[in-house]
Structure formats: structure tokens, C-alpha cells
Design goal:
- The protein is an alpha/beta fold.
- Helix 1 packs parallel to helix 2, helix 5 packs across helix 6 and helix 8 packs parallel to helix 9.
Length: 254
């Protein structure tokens, strides 16, 4: 991990990025905080050319995205063109579509379909598909959890992971163990911390919760992670301040 490989997930700032000017100002503020890269997700319907212009203007690299399942299925060429415009290799899906979530058969069907799409992305466009988990993938469906089905049955040559380590923890998994399980298949990781507040688990800035981030970052280094993306689904303070707290902590682990 280097300072230049720590990115802010724009979903954290979704309330500020629904207009072009809001996105532009958010990029500027992130650069002032010290971020050098972003993941595009949760922004408004903004012209991809403007996204590129404003990212370049702020001096930010677009390292990855989250896109909709509908666009992956029905608008793949245009989606690929946007990523090439942004010089962004990693194209992510933020969650498993609901129709696939209830059984092993559903997970297997998804693994087959997304592997076909990911193969096109890789062979025709030079892009890498990555999958972002939540906690529901840790539900046991017979003899395996959903995430185990994806690990074992999606094509390892084209299906990459973007583990969200908060959600791994929330699902009862070990973040460090799962980083090693997806070795050679994960180049982008999502980082956020888990704190206990009033006897409930809540999202926290990295270093402000109870997860062992020294061990987590070490595991990510050992397994070849390229991009360390800071995300906080819900912030108990200004989201820009939360992102700054997380960045300052991560910089102590360089």
C-alpha cells in the first residue's frame, strides 16, 4: 500500500454528488484532504466526459467503479467505453441481484452468467470484473455459503473479488482469512471499520473501530492488492471528515 493507492469510494459522498457541480466540488475536497484516487459509485446521471474532466482537473485517478447489473447485461459496450475513457481497469458490481440470492442454484446461475460477461470484458475490452460482497453472502445454503459458491464456481480467470471487509466481519467471516482465500483474484479491496455503539455494530472510520487493520493491511500486501478503497456506508459525522480520519490512519500503516 502506498499513499497513491488509497482511494475514496464516492458512494460515501452520494448526498453531495448528484449534480455535476457537486461532483466537481467533491473531487476538489477529496484532493485537498489528500486522496489521489476515487472509485466511481452512487453519483448522479453525469456525462462521463465531465466525470473524466473533473477527475483530471482535481488530479484524481479513477481506480474502479460500481455499475448496475442491468448495464452489465444490456449495455456492455457503452459501459466498457466509459471505463476506457476514465482509464479505469476495474469494473465492479456492488451486490448480487436479488433473484439469485435465495439458493445455491441461484448463486451458481449467477456465477455462470457473470463469468460469460466478464470474459467479454477481459477479451474484448481489457477490463477486469470485480464483485463486491455484503453479509448476506455468508448465509449457509446447504453445505456452502453463497460466497463460497462464487469462489469455487465463477471462472477464476475472469471473475475477480472486491471484498468489503466490514461485511465479511459482519457475516461472521475472518477478513484476514478471506483476503488469503481470494489470493490472486483480488486487486481492489473495500476498507471500513466496525465499532460497537449502544450495543450495536456500526460503521466507523478506519482505526476507530475494533477490526484488526494492521493484520488486514498486511494480508492485503501479501496477496497483491493494488487499490485500497475507503468506504463508509453511513457516517456519524460529516462524510468528508470521516474519509479524512480513515486516510490519516491508513497513512500510519504505510
Amino acid at each position: 500500500m502506498k499513499a497513491s493507492t488509497i482511494a475514496a469510494q464516492m458512494y460515501t459522498l452520494r448526498e453531495f454528488t448528484q449534480t455535476a457541480e457537486g461532483l466537481r466540488e467533491s473531487f476538489r475536497r477529496l484532493k485537498d484532504i489528500g486522496y489521489q484516487a476515487v472509485q466511481i459509485s452512487g453519483i448522479g446521471p453525469i456525462d462521463p466526459e465531465l466525470v473524466k474532466q473533473y477527475a483530471d482537473e482535481a488530479g484524481l485517478t479513477v481506480c474502479a467503479t460500481h455499475v448496475s447489473w442491468d448495464r452489465l447485461v444490456n449495455d456492455l459496450d457503452a459501459l466498457a467505453a466509459e471505463h476506457k475513457l476514465w482509464n479505469c481497469k476495474y469494473i465492479g458490481l456492488g451486490s448480487l441481484p436479488g433473484e439469485y440470492q435465495t439458493s445455491q442454484e441461484g448463486y451458481r446461475a449467477f456465477a455462470k452468467k457473470i463469468s460469460e460477461i466478464a470474459l467479454v470484458l477481459k477479451q474484448q475490452h481489457g477490463l477486469q470484473f470485480v464483485y463486491h460482497n455484503h453479509d448476506f453472502e455468508f448465509e449457509r445454503l446447504g453445505d456452502r455459503t453463497g460466497l463460497e459458491v462464487l469462489l469455487q464456481e465463477a471462472d477464476p480467470e475472469v471473475f475477480g473479488f472486491e471484498l468489503d471487509l466490514y461485511w465479511v466481519q459482519a457475516g461472521g467471516g475472518s477478513p484476514v482469512d478471506w483476503v488469503h482465500k481470494v489470493k490472486d483474484r483480488m486487486r481492489v479491496v473495500h476498507l471500513k471499520d466496525m465499532a460497537v455503539v449502544a450495543r450495536k455494530a456500526e460503521f466507523a472510520e478506519i482505526g476507530q473501530g475494533n477490526m484488526n487493520y494492521e493484520a488486514i493491511i498486511r494480508a492485503c500486501r501479501e496477496t497483491g492488492v493494488e487499490w485500497f478503497v475507503v468506504e463508509q456506508d453511513v457516517c456519524r459525522r460529516d462524510p468528508f471528515e470521516s474519509l479524512e480520519i480513515s486516510l490519516k490512519y491508513l497513512l500510519t500503516l504505510l
